[in-house]
Amino acid sequence: MMRSAIVIGASKGIGAELVSLLAQDPSIQVHALARKIESENKWEAYKNVQVHNFDLQSENLTAELQSILSNISTVDYVINNAGYLVNKPFLELSREEILDSYNVNVLGVMSALQLLIPKMLPMGGHVVNISSMGAFQGTVKFAGLSTYSSSKAALTNLTEMLAEEFKNTSLKFNCLCLGAVQTEMLAKAFPGYLAPVTAPEMAEYIVDFTLKQWKWMNGKIIPVSLSTP
Ligand SMILES: NC(=O)c1ccc[n+]([C@@H]2O[C@H](COP(=O)([O-])OP(=O)(O)OC[C@H]3O[C@@H](n4cnc5c(N)ncnc54)[C@H](OP(=O)(O)O)[C@@H]3O)[C@@H](O)[C@H]2O)c1
């Protein structure tokens, strides 16, 4: 039976690699969501990939996602991979930067999940939230990442809350707190730093976790890191 996977934040970095890997399984219909997916459709060769424009910051988020979901009957996997990072001293952060961080990293995800979860309840499924080592209690922290890391920490906690609230259903919620991965986001935040993990490598782990590990875990916050940041 065909399963469906939704990747939010699919245009580049880890998210684009997630879509490419999931697409290799023809039994999975992959929905790639992001604000702008550059190339016409980089997954054109795959019949099982559909690309949707979707902005977690949109005022019309609910209507836009409803429209995307109108042709999708059930959802099996959701990977909340979108991320917004500002590296700035706390006292210099604008209100807009703080709101943007929270909108992309947690508030938009909450609104999206309010629509996605009902599509998952009939068949069960796995929601994987992509957070950061900076949002994992007790790790090394980096000055400048207050709004990024605190908003990701809210996503981390949300995972535990949803696992509790839906514990009597077939839904599973888990959160991966990633260490450094070589992507555009990391290069911008830490210029010159070379991460020990590439985006395709991290995507391989996330896809395996999403498709297989749900059987044994719910409400878990998992550090996935060879290094810190
Ligand atoms: N790279 C690392 O070292 C690292 C470490 C820890 C955690 N993470 C987390 O891993 C995830 C992937 O990061 P990455 O390094 O691959 O970053 P990236 O290359 O910057 O990709 C981020 C993705 O999020 C999407 N996105 C941003 N704002 C959005 C919005 N308003 N609506 C919808 N999508 C939006 C981007 O798409 P558009 O800009 O095209 O919309 C893009 O596809 C993020 O959640 C990040 O916080 C990364």
Would you spell out the secondary-structure blueprint of this structure?
Blueprint: E1 3-8, H1 13-23, E2 28-34, E3 49-53, H2 61-69, E4 77-80, H3 95-120, E5 125-132, H4 146-165, E6 171-178, H5 184-189, H6 199-212, E7 220-224
Parallel strand pairs: 1-2, 1-4, 2-3, 4-5, 5-6, 6-7
Helix pairs in contact: 1-6, 2-3, 3-4
The protein binds NADP nicotinamide-adenine-dinucleotide phosphate.
Computed over alpha carbons, the radius of gyration is: 17 Å
CATH topology: Rossmann fold
Helix content: 25-40%
Strand % is 15-25%
Beta strands, count: 7
String of helices and strands: EHEEHEHEHEHHE
CATH architecture: 3-Layer(aba) Sandwich
Tell me the name of the CATH class: Alpha Beta
Q: Specify the biggest β-sheet.
A: 7 strands, parallel
Notable traits:
7 strands; binds NADP nicotinamide-adenine-dinucleotide phosphate
Structure characterization notes:
This protein is an alpha/beta fold and 229 residues long. It has a single domain (3-224), classed as NAD(P)-binding Rossmann-like Domain (Rossmann fold, 3-Layer(aba) Sandwich). Helix content is 38%, strand content 19%. Strands 3-2-1-4-5-6-7 form a seven-stranded parallel sheet, with helices on both faces. The N and C termini lie far apart (40 Å). The model has no long low-confidence stretch (mean pLDDT 95). Bound molecules: NADP nicotinamide-adenine-dinucleotide phosphate. NADP nicotinamide-adenine-dinucleotide phosphate binds next to helix 1, strand 5 and helix 5.
